[in-house]
Amino acid sequence: MTENTEITSNPQNTRCGFVALIGAPNAGKSTLMNRMVGGKVSIVTHKVQTTRSQIRGIAMHKDSQLIFVDTPGIFLPKKRLERAMVSAAWSGAGDAEIIVVLHDAGRKKIGEETRSIIEGLQKRDRKVILALNKIDSINPEKLLLLAQEFMATEVFSDIFMISALEGNGVKDLMDHLAKTVPAGVWLYPEDQLSDLPMRSIAAEITREKLFLNLHDELPYNLTVETESWEDFEDGSVKITQMIYVQREQHKAMCLGKGGRTIKLIRSKAQADLQESLERKVHLFLYVKVREKWADDPERYREMGLDFNS
Known about the structure:
Layout: E1 15-23, H1 29-37, E2 55-61, E3 64-70, H2 80-95, E4 98-104, H3 112-124, E5 128-133, H4 140-151, E6 156-161, H5 170-180, H6 198-213, E7 222-231, E8 237-245, H7 248-255, H8 260-277, E9 281-289, H9 297-303
């Protein structure tokens, strides 16, 4: 997927560090992480608030191991789940050696959500890197003015112009990160792309298909959990997942007329899982109504979120 990964065999002077990717919803954080890692570890949709918790992706570049932390978009939260998501984003930023703020250059100006991020960074007295993403959506003159507006905040030490989708400018960013993370031993094997268990990644893949194929309001009222994982001697795997929704009508929307919608989602998720796992997958999906799942501490633990945020 990516052309910018460079690994040196048996390096003598290794570097390793955590890099938090933060930004307003839909800035392109998950797309960028997948690009830099070289595989799909974070789901991507056109809808805001797709990422709900911290997701780590691991990339090798030259003699450095870069552990990227994809965080939920930072916005002004109203509900418990939203507060937990924003808290997870700031927690990921606080724990990282390097923070990269992504901004959708197509928006052409610094919006309210991004300004709140800048204010939060100013309070924390952190110098961070700015990545202006989707640069193909804005002309160079306006891009320069936008960059100057960001640099005037005195929060950013460096600025990179990138396209996470196309890969433009990503190698320059990777080069900078690789030489900036502290010296240290690698924390993960060279071929590992994420520290998430495959059960969690599988649930995220199904949730992505639900986001992409259901009505706008429904995805925010559901969650997916992998209930069982059974390996067979022929190399195939049986994965059973539960989709929790809050209303009976939501269940009907997930299933679709004659079960057509859930069959479509199962087919697309199964294809993605087979590609990721490189083996045959038997995926079974069930939909269950749990009205207050968004107020259930156990669901928050499953998502890696703090219920009391």
